[in-house]
Amino acid sequence: MSAVQAGKVSDSGGRRPHDHGRPHGGGRRTSGKRPGGGVLGARPWTAAVFLLPALLLLGALVVYPVVFSVYRSLFDASGTGFVGLGNYGAMFSDDGIRTALRNNVVWVVVAPTVSTVLGLIFAVLTERIRWGTAFKLIVFMPMAISMLAAGIIFRLVYDQDPERGVANAVWVGIHDTFSEPAPFPGAKPRPRSGLAPSGGGAFTTRATVRAASPVNLPLVAVQPGDLRGARAAAAAGSRPGKVTGTVWLDFARGGGGRPGVIDGNEKALAGLTVEAVKGGRVVASATTAADGTYALPADRAEGARLRLPAANFAEAYRGVDWLGPALVTPAVIGSYVWMWAGFAMVLIAAGLAGVPRELLEAARVDGAGEWQVFRRITVPLLAPVLVVVLVTLMINVLKIFDLVYIIAPGSSIRSANVLALQLFQSSFGTDVDEGLGSAIAVFLLLLVLPVMYVNLRRIRKERRR
């Protein structure tokens, strides 16, 4: 037997296992790819047909508007006069747009940070309570509400009238718990009664007083609701060693009566403070009784002037002007946080579910407290999720429009202005200037691009891991 023939016979005398079924041509086995095809055997033009609708939509809805906005921003309001970068210069010289830019900075710094921090707190705390799922559902529910509906809700929440606005109803309740309300807000002396305004809402007698003759102090403009349970006014008599008098409502229902004289059906004003003032200093004070009378020690009050301090007549506390120029931006940010804290909580809770529990338990066994575990282990492990939430909310905040437009009243709209709202007003408001509006749109796009770039870099890093 030759060497060639011996090589064709296996040790067992049969054909070699790897030679069984091999084509006589001896070539390598070919893959399942079609000639000129892709991984799935698809031709390039087939993939292009499937991608074409998406590319057309992307071009029509994204690329064309961006290119046209850049082009339009180089022309004036009429669209016929080329102004170059003039609209961009006008944008930074306009006070309203500068206010919008400052407010956008506040929005980008505050709103995403507060929403993310609250979401982190809610996600961590709900892991330790049995009704955590129900709590998450309640916190996440505002996400099901549109911005329009949320704006209407918070416009009512921030209403100045405590009878309508929930925020002021709570605030007024807290204030009135610790501060005594004025007994007769809005009341004032009857004209030609001897009392004159003395600054700050107080009223002082024009003449000094003596113990021999009572000093009556008639008032008007008392609210009917403040007289519930009031007794009839009584004339104060002379008392040894006292300066006396009566404070009453010098008004009789149905008319009649004599000005400056206590008539039988006129009401006493109880609980008013009466002060004796000498040289600008209070030397004595008293509070009117249920029948309106008061008594001051004559050794200190005689020769002084009597004053009814402003605290007797201060208007009822109406709460905080949430939608005023000073607080309108924080108020609108509060409504945004109410909506988006639930979104942050759900994403962070999903990331928290993937944190290795053995690391947390090992830290606790080593003696770490809950705050140390949270700060040194939980937060670093959740850092990628926190960045995702923060970047997403930053992009969302740069486009905020509807909440500001609905919540801020006309008197405060300039103070609450943001770039997206200014874009709408410049393009479609009373002074239509589409060139300036396009410039604002391009500038807003440039502000969003760095945030998007950071987000894309983060996504690429995660894919490499």
3D architecture notes:
The longest helix has 31 residues, at 95-125. It is elongated, with a radius of gyration of 40 Å. The protein has 2 domains: 86-160 and 322-464, MetI-like (MetI-like fold); 188-312, no CATH class. Residues 1-34 and 36-40 have low confidence and may be disordered. It is α+β, with helices and mostly antiparallel strands. Strand 2 (195-197) and strand 3 form a beta hairpin. Helix content is 47%, strand content 9%. It has helices at 3-7, 44-72, 86-93, 95-125, 132-140, 147-157, 166-178, 298-301, 328-353, 357-365, 370-381, 383-398, 402-407, 419-428, 434-464; strands at 188-189, 195-197, 203-205, 217-220, 242-249, 273-278, 281-287, 293-297, 305-308. The chain has a 5-stranded antiparallel β-sheet, with no helix packed on it. Helix 4 packs parallel to helix 9 (328-353).
Distance between the termini: 60 Å
Number of strands: 9
Secondary structural class: alpha+beta
Biggest sheet details: 5 strands, antiparallel
Question: Strands across the major sheet, in which order?
Answer: 2-3-9-6-7
CATH class of the largest domain: Mainly Alpha
Number of discrete helical segments: 15
Helicity level: 40-55%
Please mark out the parts with pLDDT under 50 across 5 or more consecutive residues, or reply none: 1-34, 36-40
Rg measurement, Å: 40 Å
The CATH H-level superfamily of the largest domain is: MetI-like
The number of domains is 2
Overall residue-averaged pLDDT value: 85
Layout of secondary structure:
Blueprint: H1 3-7, H2 44-72, H3 86-93, H4 95-125, H5 132-140, H6 147-157, H7 166-178, E1 188-189, E2 195-197, E3 203-205, E4 217-220, E5 242-249, E6 273-278, E7 281-287, E8 293-297, H8 298-301, E9 305-308, H9 328-353, H10 357-365, H11 370-381, H12 383-398, H13 402-407, H14 419-428, H15 434-464
Helix pairs in contact: 2-15, 3-15, 4-9, 4-12, 5-9, 9-12, 10-11, 12-15, 14-15
